[in-house]
Structures are given as structure tokens and as C-alpha cells.
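Bumping with the actual sequence this time:
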Amino acid sequence: MEALNKHGHQDLLIKNGLLVLPDGIEKGDLRIAHGMIQEYGNPLQPLPEEQVLEANGKYIVPGFIDIHNHGGQGFDFTYGNYDPEKKGFYFSNPSYLEGVTRTLRYFLHHGATRIYATTLAAPIQDLKRSLTALDAYRKAENYELGQMLAGINLEGTFIRDPAFAGAQNPEHFQPLSQDLFADLQKAAGGMIHIVNVPPDHGMESLSFIKQLSQQGVVIAGGHTGAYGAITHEAVDAGMKLAVHYFNGPSRQSYKSFHQGGAMEAFLLRDEVSLELIVDGYHIQPAYVRDAITRKEVDRVIAITDSMFVNGSTDIHRFSLAGISGSLSSDKQYLQVSNRPDTLFGSVLTPFTGFKNLVRWLSSEMNGYWTRHHPALSRDEAIWLASQLMSSNPARLSGLDKPSHETSPTGSIRKGFSADLLILSNSNNLQDMHIQECILAGKLMSDLE
């Protein structure tokens, strides 16, 4: 491995890759310099200072962006580190910051180059403590993985109806308050970019949505008992995202009253993108295909909704925010104790989600809303899965636009951050793995 250049990045020329571009897949070369994608085409001649990587026809995809992630490796973004022996969480600034690094490194190994740290309903003092620590982590120069923290997703705080709590604790739900949000945003150093504002707060939710939207916050809706009528008004006010669609829990109504439920409104409105947990347990694959067909490619976003149990080998039963849960016997999903039909986040990794999508999209299947879904070609399935995992979440969150802090990401484009995955060449999808992960031009092996 050649040394990094004076800018701290590897100047690379990747030869003969299958480049998964915004409008399709092309075979060609890709040049990286100063952490950025400089150009791509066929062929490109090596420059003297470049390291050359031979891709040999392997797929090169943009790094995955997980906008809904609560943690992993025994670490929760809200409560800190979990002690399996004491069956509880502990928090100190050093242990919390170490937990962030451990978690980000784990997800980088599994293909995520950007993550939105997602919070649970929690006591306000605990929430502020974690938000302050995340802000410190992002700003600290000695945390090389800090650039992976794209922002914070405030999921649980403003849920209103305990009947739609899911695995969140209603004791910690808060009324809508501009002052409270301002305090939380101050603690987070402005990193709160996504907020769940259930429309069942009524007219108060509409003014709250408008005000936060004007501040550049992406407004999500989920864990909601709202009917369709008020949900349509929330979308008019600026709501853009449906929280883990199909797994709200959110009101669904087939009746003609109130324009249905929130689920129907989210499906009808083109302004709203759907989060889908693509582990194969939260949603039947046929419904995933149906949702993509109904909403079209640009308005579906794959997420993990990962919990702290993900990547751990010694956590089987646990309590989080006062809610008891357990790992399934096959270690594939989490469920709320005594409520087996209520899932508790997931243990899904981004790359497993990607492979699930490719498998489902390349398989012929019958849908529920759509009678039949044809099998897509391998290239078509990989391109479409890449949109759901990278391009769509970048577009929703604005990560595809340059800012004063970061370069755009989420696609293979000139001038975008070189956040890329090189996938192994295998005819068997199960054997496909991430051969190399590149974060802002740095090879994962250089980030160990």
C-alpha cells in the first residue's frame, strides 16, 4: 500500500470497473484525487502519483447512506454503551465517544459511508447529554470517522399517541415545543436534520412542521394515529418522509371517512418518500416490490433501523428505555418481550440490505397490490438497489449538494466525495462481499 499524499487522501485510479452511475451502469475507469471523484471514462491513463487498483469488471457503487440507525456493537446513540453482565447502559464521555467510533467502524465495514444517528424517546437530560457528545465527536479533529456522521434523526421525542408507540417508551414523549427543539438543536450543534412530527398533534403540528422546514429540517411522519386528512395537510406544510413505512405503527384505514389513514396519505403523495426496513422480516419482499412500483424508484429509501444489539454476540435479552426485548432464536431480528408481533428495530447491516434488494428485484414474484413483478437483470437490480441505498437518501437529506462543511455524496459524479464500495465478483449473490470500501478517498484499510 502506498502512503497517503500530503492531503491525507489516496490518489487512486480504479481501472475496468462496472461503474454504477446515476443513469445506468458503464464499464470504465474512475480517478480519485484529494478525496474527490475527478473523472471517469474509458480509458484513463495513470498519472505518476496515482495508485492503480484493477477492478476486473467488479461493480463500483456509491457508499450506502443509512438515514435511520440507532446504533450497533453494543452501543446506542441515545443511551451509550450496554453492559451485558449488568444488563443496563452506562454513560461517560470517553466511553460514549469510543462507542461512536466502534459503531461507525462496524457500519463502514458493512458499506455505510454516511449515517444519521437516530434517537429514541428519552428523558430530556439524557437526550441532551448524547446530542452534546455527538456534536463534540463530529467536531473533534482526532476522530477520522466523524465525517460519517451526516446528522441526527430525532425519531421518538415528539410521538404523541401511546397506542402507536411501537418499541418507544411513552413516558418520554414530549409535546411539540419550539423552545424544546431549539434547546435540543443547540445541544446537537445544529446536527438535527430529520425530525419525526406525527400529524396527530393537529393544527399545532402544521405550524411546527412549517417552522422546522424553513430551518432546513427534513420532516418525517411515523408512529402516528393521524387520519389521512390531517396527514395531507402535514405534507402540504412540508412533511417529506414516512418513518419505516409498513412498520409505523401508523394508522391505516380502508374506510371512506377522513381520507383514510396516514398510511394511505403517505402512499398517495409524491412529495413523500418511504423508508423501508429491508431485512425481509419487517416487510414481505412482495410488498417492497409493490412499494417501489407504486411510488417509483426515486421515492423509496432503504434503511436498517439498526439497534445496539447489531453486531454483538452476547446480548440476547435486554431492556432499552424501559422496554424489554429479545433477539430471535435464529438471531435474525429483535422483538418486544410479550409482544412477538412488535419488532424492536433490527440487526440488519447495510450490505445485507443491499443484497436482499438485489435478490428480490432479480426474482420473479407475485405482488399484493401489483399482480406480477418480473425478474430484473442483475445490472438492473444492482442499479435500482443502489438508488434506494445511496442516491435517494442523499437527495432527501441534501447530501447530494455541497455545503460549507462537506462535499456532496451519494452518487458517482465528478466533484462528489469519493465514498465508494468495490464489490467482489461472484455469480452467487450470497458470496458477494465488499472487497474495498473508500471513504472520502481513503481506503478502509487505511482507516483501521
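The C-alpha cells above came from a reply further down the thread. Residues 203 and 230 are 8 Å apart (CA to CA).
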